[in-house]
Amino acid sequence: MQLEDGDPARRRGRQVNGEVSGTPQVGATGEPSLQDMPEPDDSGTEVMAESWEAEPALGDRDVTPRGATQQAGQREEALMAELSELVQKVVKSSSWWERHGVDISILLCSFLLLPAGFLCLRSAQAIPFLVGVLILGVVHHTLTVKGSHLASHNALTESKSWGKVWAIFFIELCSAFTAEQGIYNHVKIHHGYTNIIGMGDSSTWKVPFLNRYVYMFIAPLAVPIITPLVALDLLRNVKWKAALRTLCCMFLGLYCHYWLLLHISGFQSPWSALLCMLLTRSLLAHPYIHVNIFQHIGLPMFVAERKPKRIHLMSLGVLNLPRNILLDCSFGHSLISCHVEHHLFPSLSDNMCLKIKPIVSQYLKQKKLPYNEDTYASRLQLFLQRYEELMVHAPPITELVGIQ
């Protein structure tokens, strides 16, 4: 499942019933408790990402940071409401093309490139063959990362019914993962408990027994193999009908890729076709793993009993990377340069996150709130230098005194 922090290695997780409205309404503060979340087998295919109203970090209504006054808590809520109102004005004034059309067009163009990629692989010459690998690799990650991520948040359409269809298509057929578990892990846990120790702290990305170089540069090649294996394990948590649907979609997606390599690209042996599948499906696995750890791990971590309100939680615990044309197209703005905006307003599409970025950054800086930004190279160097501290040992808990 190609979702940020809803990755193939995520083994815990359950299902959530979420409702998505047409044009999101920003600023509601009602937050369900963890006990209210349904189990994975409660609703079958009716799992969908929640709207902005339901995605704030859970528990804010009951717990305020130690030493903070009631007035400070009300001020934080007012800040989020004010920012939400500014963003909502932009959303209401945006056309369907801006809200959904741009990202749908990118996904559609990716589909249209598939024939060229498979045909290039027929060539016996190195350059056309490598072009084919590049095309199929980029298209695969565009569909499985960008497509799955947008579908999990119902950001591709304003229809709940079509949203369910796209979630199954991108997450199960294209990504070989289970939609129920992927959406729950990403939307309910990671977004609901961003950087909360033991919950949404990105700990499922950690593999402590691997050294830094193996983890950062070799292990990502195994992502295409790990993904369906973990999905099969997670099927125990869903109803048998949903499990059967997922198995059929996973098999169909993988077999179609294999069949096309044999019959369109002209591979002579099953092993060469399988090797090519692995190569194309792992082409951007390194930045995929890197992006998911760079943007949260190493930033402030909290415990559920002493965490800030939503606007502080997301401004403190989320980081933006610079724009990159390859990663912008294949992963989407909300996972690269607009990750802060995405965590504040998760049901917006990639293009809308990019559109509200100046408003959000200016507002947070104006209110003297953190707005974390760093370069890919800088974060890579940081993780190589502090790998033991960040990826092996338990992260320190941030005290909240004075952040208000």
From TrEMBL:
GO BP, one annotated term: fatty acid biosynthetic process
GO cellular component, one term: membrane
Region feature (Disordered): 1-73
Keyword annotations from UniProtKB, A to Z: Fatty acid biosynthesis, Fatty acid metabolism, Lipid biosynthesis, Lipid metabolism, Membrane, Transmembrane, Transmembrane helix
Positions of transmembrane segments: 104-121, 126-143, 213-235, 242-264
Any one Gene Ontology molecular-function term assigned to this protein's record: oxidoreductase activity, acting on paired donors, with oxidation of a pair of donors resulting in the reduction of molecular oxygen to two molecules of water
Annotated Fatty acid desaturase domain residues: 129-373
This protein's name: FADS6 desaturase
Lineage of source species: Eukaryota, Metazoa, Chordata, Craniata, Vertebrata
